[in-house]
């Protein structure tokens, strides 16, 4: 499992000529690190007298950030598994016309399944971004820069994850049947951009 590797080991695997892990796993890791920074900011704020009026908000955000971190860490491996499914389809035989037809169908099916993974990553990164926005002015001011980095990590993970299904549609013939997914991409990105701009304005 990728998540069990040390940072150095993961870096070596990522920089190798293996096609996976790739951008999706990195986007998930980026979001998870953002969620962990949110958790840190919450823990540095809970129990402090000057923020006791926000304890319920801080506790709620902490619970959500811990859950989001766990989910995004799991997606590091899930995304690689999804991509490997596509690669397996490309290795199917193509000797006969029937083989070619079955292979093409398997590749298209694999791509359709694979785009669900980065969409899930994008949505969870969006949720991390919302948490950073919610904590502005309600958390330890000494950790404001950490909250800012959390926001940027989450946004980078979201934008990175969204690139994957878009690029997939450009190289496959499944775009016409995926209008719902394209709509989800648009709405997720728009919501994140609004939250990101609002974060910068507030600080």
Features:
203 residues, mainly alpha, Four Helix Bundle (Hemerythrin (Met), subunit A), 0% strand, elongated
Number of separate structural domains = 1
Count of helix runs: 7
> Cα-atom Rg, whole angstroms?
19 Å
* Unreliable stretches: none
State the assembly state of the protein chains: single chain
Averaged pLDDT, please?
Answer: 85
Strand-residue proportion: under 5%
Distance between termini? 39 Å
Largest β sheet strand count, sense and barrel closure: none
Shape estimate:
elongated
Q: At the third CATH level, what is the topology name?
A: Four Helix Bundle (Hemerythrin (Met), subunit A)
CATH first level: Mainly Alpha
Percent helix among the residues? over 70%
Strands, count: 0
Order of helices and strands: HHHHHHH
Relevant CATH superfamily = Formiminotetrahydrofolate cyclodeaminase monomer, up-and-down helical bundle
Structural class: mainly alpha
CATH architecture: Up-down Bundle
Structure described in brief:
The chain has 203 residues and is an all-alpha fold. It has helices at residues 7-14, 23-43, 55-90, 97-114, 116-135, 144-171, 179-202. The protein is elongated and about 75 Å long.
Characterization of this structure:
The protein has one domain (21-202): Formiminotetrahydrofolate cyclodeaminase monomer, up-and-down helical bundle (Four Helix Bundle (Hemerythrin (Met), subunit A), Up-down Bundle). The chain starts with 6 loop residues before the first helix and ends with a helix. It has 203 residues and is an all-alpha fold. The mean pLDDT is 85. The protein has 7 helices and no strands. Helix content is 76%, strand content 0%. The chain has helices spanning 7-14, 23-43, 55-90, 97-114, 116-135, 144-171, 179-202.
């Amino acid at each position: 499992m990728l998540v069990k590797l040390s940072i150095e080991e993961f870096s070596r695997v990522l920089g190798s000529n293996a096609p996976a892990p790739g951008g999706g796993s990195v986007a998930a890791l980026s979001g998870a690190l953002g969620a962990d920074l949110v958790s840190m900011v919450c823990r540095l704020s809970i129990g402090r007298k000057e923020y006791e009026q926000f304890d319920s908000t801080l506790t709620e955000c902490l619970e959500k950030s811990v859950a989001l971190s766990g989910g995004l860490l799991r997606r590091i491996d899930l995304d690689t598994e999804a991509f490997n499914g596509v690669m397996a389809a490309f290795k199917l035989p193509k000797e006969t016309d029937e083989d070619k037809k079955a292979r093409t169908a398997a590749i298209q099916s694999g791509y359709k399944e694979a785009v669900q993974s980065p969409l899930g990553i994008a949505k969870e990164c969006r949720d991390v971004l919302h948490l950073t926005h919610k904590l502005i002015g309600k958390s330890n001011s000494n950790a404001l820069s950490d909250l800012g980095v959390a926001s940027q990590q989450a946004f980078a993970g979201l934008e990175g994850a969204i690139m994957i299904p878009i690029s997939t549609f450009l190289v496959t013939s499944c775009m016409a049947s995926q209008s719902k997914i394209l709509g989800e991409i648009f709405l997720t990105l728009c919501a994140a951009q609004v939250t990101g701009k609002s974060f910068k304005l507030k600080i």
